[in-house]
Amino acid sequence: MKDDQPNVLRPDLYAIAEMIQTNEKVLDLGCGEGTLLRYLIDTRQIVGRGIELSEPAVLACVRKGLSVRHGNLDEGLRDYPDQSFDTVILSQTLPYLDAPAFIVREMLRVGQRAIVSFANWGHWRCRLALLFTGRMPLAPGLPQRWDMPPRARPLTVRDFIDFCAREQIRITRSIYLGESNRVLRAARLGENIRVAIAIFELK
Amino acid sequence: MENQNSLGNTERKYFTFAEHEPMPLDSGETLGPITLAYETYGKLNADQSNAILICHALSGDAHAAGVDANGKVGWWDDCIGPGKAFDTNKYFVVCSNVIGGCQGSTGPSSLNPQTGKPYALDFPVVTIGDMVRAQRHLVDALGIEKLLAVAGGSMGGMQVLQWTVSYPERVRAALPLATTARHSPMLIAFSEVGRQAIYADPHWNRGNYYDGARPNTGLALARMIGHITYLSEESMHQKFGRRLENREHFGFDFETDFAIESYLHYKGSRFTERFDANTYLYVTKAMDYFDLANGDGDLTQAFARCGNIMYLVVSFTSDWLYPTYHSKEMVSALMAVGADVTYCNLQSTWGHDAFLLEVETMTQLISDFLGRVVAHYGIALP
Fold first, then answer.
1. Residue in B closest to A84 by C-alpha
2. pLDDT tens-digit profile of A6-32?
3. From the candidates B343, B361, B369, B370, which should be mutated to test the interface with A, based on the most A CB atoms within 10 A?
4. What is the 3-state secondary structure (H, E, C) of B290-303?
5. Whether the complex's predicted ipTM surpasses the cut of 0.95
């Protein structure tokens, strides 16, 4: 699901990259073909690791000179000792998880902090699409219809904030990207309606 | 298809050591002198940093690549040579026959200097650890302080893991392929059936057959059992199906009906031309004893000193002899000690043999991984 153009990062990945310090130890969950990890190694000299389910994507990562563990997130995360990374990243994968609470907790066990990004089904276009067309809206930037794989469970920014409160996970930073991928100055929850992609730092 | 990137003719060399002081073995016994047959491909660079040791599996030998004096192509020629996975334009590749072997290294068919006759069962039982200890003497003699990588599949993979456990300071990267960190009861069971086939051959004569008829029937049967375990149900379907061999209809007799039977007979009988039955006993025993966790189940203890080694672990979906979870178990333990581990469970229908047959994917994985190791350590390639 990741953009594989060399040196051109998807906007949410770019925003995530901006949150990473030089020399950090970073684990990317569902790292795809390793675009973000490669970028972070090249620009921030991080020590990077990935977990990825798809065999061709794993091979592409190895081709990029990355260290990747082939497998699903549950068993992949289980292998890592407590607090063995500075940052654990989950980009645009949250709606596809069977057990998001478990994975987010595991991320915070393995890493000092977690960074999670996802498309917001609460965007006003989604709301209007459902209201006026009577059809399930597509999430911003995701072309998947409801019947296309992988199976996704739509969520909104508000849902995620509620989820973190329930799970007693602290949101330490939030970055909201609007439709044109510009960063929104959106501290107020009401702005949720303009958010296309949300990025949260969790601790 | 003619191999355009072959190394051409390769030469078997010999290294003898432990002439004055025998090498201690895990069993408490000692062995000496010891000769290792080995081959090398490519050139060692100025600071001896581009050496890769290849470890062979149960039936393998030192002839891993190129063509030997008898015109035989090496067992991993698909992956070793100019431009191949283990690119001999870049790396100095070494492969030696294990001790206990029968292809030039000291084993039960070698002459016991004390009696002037073949050792037979007087040859001490050796372990994977002993095989690796002997290889270390060879690596020392070649002037290699630190191996760029150690690689191998199946029993070769066990030696790879043993290398990183026994001599972590001498290995930069390890490629254990289609293997396990401890031989499972099922594997021991198959080993034992193979050994029983040999024991049951009247020519075996408790190992003393070197001046008479050899226990070829038993050895061939052991090999046939082995071959079944290297395939998968699916690959047998693809390769043989229920096809009949040289007949149109069932024979309603006890001659060979099916292609799979004929294949096993052929493989079994060919094996007896090049392999020694006693070596089969010793090498399978060495595998059965292999358990890096030393019986207590804790692999992280075993790998405690391996945190600085880069690993490429590969398993294959249809390998039921060394199932995926064996590799996952070692990956977990290696990650727990902080090692840099790349793990790939490759989709394949070929069963255990996949590590030799999935050439295209393996070539990509291995060459990319070695490229990263070279970059990481700033190795100057020739």
1. B338
2. 457 888 899 999 999 999 999 999 999
3. B343
4. CECCCCCCCHHHHC
5. no
